[in-house]
Amino acid sequence: MTLLGEILEHNKQFVNEKQYEQYSTTKFPDKRIVILTCMDTRLTELLLKSMNLKNGDAKLIKSAGAVVTHPFGGIMRSILIAVYELQADEVFIIGHHDCGMNSIDTDHIIGDMVERGIDKSLFETLQYSGIDMEDWLHGFDDVTESVKASVKQVRNHPLMDPKVPIHGLVINPTTGQLDTIVDGYKHN
Question: Cys-Cys crosslink for 173: which of 12, 42, 64, 179, Cβ 3.0 to 4.6 Å?
Answer without folding.
Answer: 42
